[in-house]
Amino acid sequence: MQFPERFSNLPEYAFPRMRALLDEHAGGGNVIHMSIGEPRHPMPDFVGELLERHAGEFAKYPPNEGTAGLRSSITRWIGRRFNVELDPELHVVPINGSREGLFNAALALLPERKAGDVPIALMPNPFYQVYSVGAIMAQAEPMFVAANEETGFLPDYANLPKDVLDRVAIAFVCSPSNPQGGVASSEYWAELLRLAEAHDFVIFADECYSEVYRNTPPIGALEVAKNIGADPERLVVFHSLSKRSNLPGLRSGFIAAGPKTIALTKKLRAYSGAPLPLPIQHVSEAVWGDERHVNLSRKLYQEKYVVVDEIMGDVPEYHPPSAGFFLWLPVWDGEAMALKIWKNTGVRVLPGAYLSRPTAEGDPGAGYLRVALVAEINEMRTGLEAIRACL
Ligand SMILES: Cc1ncc(COP(=O)(O)O)c(C=O)c1O
User: Fold this and answer.
1) How far is the CA of 212 from the centre of ligand 1 (A)?
2) Which of 6, 234, 384, 385 is the most buried (most CB within 10 A)?
3) In what order do the strands lie in the sheet with 141-146?
4) What is residue 372's predicted lDDT score, i.e. its pLDDT?
């Protein structure tokens, strides 16, 4: 059996690739996992009880569009966090985590043709891997646009040639960005929204790290769109409880967008989507309504940023992450360095190139390591000191 041709160039996924690189060798010390971005701070303490209370509802088919309670809890959160009023009936749809939503929204919204040609899906390079597969699945052409130090770790789409921009149907942006920890400013979003209007494309804003930040809450694309009076159909925003609430296993997030976009997404999901089980919808409703656990978790990340700066501050070209829970560490050769660190210390980190694609201009991930700052702070410190000693 073989993949159909459109998937034939898909590299092995990042984590099996890392295992193939490292597991041929013994680790040089107590194993510390700093590769996978799985949150490890406590989840909200009320989840278990609520799940138990609603467990009987696993016996029912859940509504595709989400319960009214969940949708209202989501729009109230958007109102508090971004100062944007949305209609829970029209503007949001719950999803099984942002990965599923990004994939299915791309299927629902990518056209067959754009400007008389195959449509382009722009994505930052490096990027969260589902962006490319969503684009390929819909038979669009993924285009990888460097998001490196020179571009402020966000893709500079405005500088692409006009004929390329005219073929763009979707532009993915991740802010705060995984892996670089960059944050899009309000000017960045405003310029991109204008570009989307001028070239008739839709922005997919992946904001699943929006609640993990150092100082100031990152501005949301929804807020900027409202402030500049952008067409609401230009923007599709993705959020998740995985990082905000340390519930990656709950598989719960939402899409917020203009009413036409949401109607199309819901229509396709009615055929092929997997709605969130009802007990999960009840839990999610309560979790979006609570900020206490989010503030506690953020405080732990803020303490971690201080430790990261202290240990890595003198690494040449070190960029302190502004948000998110990754360190994007410049090391010249990410693969060789990940292997050296594993062999010398037992710390497992991900070569940056496993999250990027080589292009004619080079591979913007090749000289980096992605280090996940998810472990308990003392374990994280031990891991970072071990990495530092290898550089
Ligand atoms: C940038 C980015 N987007 C989306 C996701 C998907 O998260 P989830 O599906 O758990 O919401 C992740 C998870 O690591 C991510 O890093």
Assistant:
1) 13
2) 384
3) 92-95, 253-257, 235-240, 202-206, 168-174, 120-125, 141-146
4) 98
In percent, the amount of the chain with pLDDT more than 90 equals 98
Give the Å distance between the CA of 99 and the centre of ligand 1: 5
Q: How far is the CA of 55 from the centre of ligand 1 (A)?
A: 26
CA distance 211 to 353: 26
389 token code pair: 């000693």
User: What's the rounded Cα separation, in Å, for the pair 350 and 302?
Assistant: 22
Q: What is the pLDDT of residue 273?
A: 86
Whether the CB of 374 sits within 6 Å of ligand 1? no
- Average pLDDT rounded to a whole number, residues 33-38: 96
CATH assignment at residue 268 = 3.40.640.10
**CA of 41 relative to ligand 1 center, distance in Å:** 16
337-391 pLDDT, tens digit each: 999 999 999 999 999 999 999 999 999 999 999 999 999 999 999 999 999 999 9
Per the structure, the complete domain to which residue 169 belongs is given by 47-290
Atom of ligand 1 nearest to the CA of 241: 11
262 with 188, same domain: the answer is yes
